[in-house]
């Protein structure tokens, strides 16, 4: 009898669209450095660099405007899944089923500075704890991570009814600790302030990211970003005002 253990199939699902109201088309804005040429391209490359990720899927909508997202992902030789624009939870659930994923990492196409090392740590901690949902904290905005079991995602898909639960994928899980094994990992880094914005919502966010990706080595990690901040503390002020914006 074969007693070989079967490792869970882990997929990174990258939520992407063109229709941002604050910064339209932000996922395909150019970012220099390495082989990737766009914000989305860097998200894909960093997810692929994680050793614990078996498959990267770009999950976009069926809208004509998002053909550009699908074309860019296909040009990067990445799997694309297209689904409902508003019901992103449905899109994630269907993509996970279609690609036979056991564990899903939720990523978004406006967070190009995710750190593959922390991605691996989050996945391994999720599996070791037998968690249904793992959330990391303590990292800069745009670099924390969510890991969820496909069965828990399927339960949320079947039971979530609030619009924000359908749009943002994971709120139903966090709201029902009686149903799911929830885990929070504090990855706080002394060298990188949690107030640092490494997400892309506004032009000044893009200015900071473009500067980092133009200055740091290809594939830079958060520790290297922290070293640059230590040398040039003013960098955090390029976009810190965006954290106060009411939306």
UniProtKB/TrEMBL annotation:
Domain of life: Bacteria
Source organism: Solirubrum puertoriconensis
Protein name: Spore coat polysaccharide biosynthesis protein SpsF
Pfam family, one: CTP_transf_3
A GO cellular component entry from the record: cytosol
